[in-house]
Amino acid sequence: MSKLFVVSAPSGCGKTTLCRRLLADGLGLVDSVSMTTRPPRRGEEAGVDYRFVSRDLFEEMAGRGELLEYEENFGHLYGTPKKFIEDNLKKGKSVLLSIDVKGAMKVKRAYPKESVLIFLVPPSVADLKKRLRERKSDGPGDIARRLKIAEKELSYKSKYDYRVVNDRIDSAYKVLKEIILAESKKG
Q: Rounded to two decimals, what is the model's pTM?
């Protein structure tokens, strides 16, 4: 049976790095590329990292029910195109979604049997703060906002099927891969 592997984490927990490794590892996962109204960050590629769209287009698609889930974060909209998910499930392909906690809850409600929710946890809040500073993509005010949101997101971790502590990227990846392989074998 095809699965929807949903990976969520507070900003700075290594979600993008770990998901890229999963996709490159020949596990048969299809990447769900989220849509967003935010501008690309340095090094991001349209259609690979996100589908960058205007707010008007995003809102039109949401209004027509074309998004499985969507949320507003940091003043920008993020969402998952529904048709892509439906098409891949029909083809028997498992999809990897890297989305926030609210989106994950919506996916679980829409596809309770197919969804496997995995939450990446930082070793500590201090470590998360350090990672966000080292990333150098946000100023002090943005980092403070991300840490406040991280507290809220961490309150969702008990609603996930699995929790993986990302203290070292290689060990976190090993655990994440084992979860994907074990769940893929289940009917």
A: 0.87
